[in-house]
Hints:
The chain is built from 8 helices and 5 strands; from the N terminus they run αααββααααβββα. The chain is mainly alpha-helical and about 220 residues long. It has one domain.
Amino acid sequence: xxxxxxxxxxxxxxxxxxxxxxxxxRTLYWLALDWVHLQAVFPNPPKTEGRTGKVQDYxxxxxxxSAKAAEIVDMMTCWHDYLAEERSERQPRRKRMGVNNDGDDxxxxxxxxxxxxxxxxxxxxxxxxxxxxxxxxxxxxxxxDLHYGIRRALGATTPKYTLPVPCPSNDCxxxxxxRVQGAGQDFISCDACGYTIKEVHYPFLIxxxxxxxxxxxx
Length: 218
Ligand SMILES: [Zn+2]
């Protein structure tokens, strides 16, 4: 084969595109908070059949919220499960639910949504670099896609959500931290003193928030 063809075919074999770990990490922050937000704003939704993804396709906004909250938990648990398996670390616990018509065992995750999202987030957040190295961009893109879809809907209806944790500013300490979201913006600041959380402090804040939610009486 002429040399120019060989060069051509090298160019044709594209390297898989990688998501930046920073983008993935930020997406996980927002998805964890999306979940907290959905839980808090739309408690106890009615049971729903089927799902399509648009708020207006659901009978009640709470049905949409419940479906989206479950989608966040399932997606994050799957990535937790995948990465833990790849790294031979402890995977999310499962239990055998029975046998299907083909005689195969049917498994489900053993713990509730709250515990699953907390453990998925705590596992994945410090391992974003590992996940982006293993999985190409297109496969991981479902995470930001899910977040942006939720943000579009929540930002339009409930642009402000008060987090269940106190303001970390020493002079303040009030439970007035809000997440503000809308078109092209998403940040956490204190409604009382104006303190804005820096992104480097998000892991700590989200950990506190998830722990606060986990501690709530179900
Ligand atoms: Zn404050």
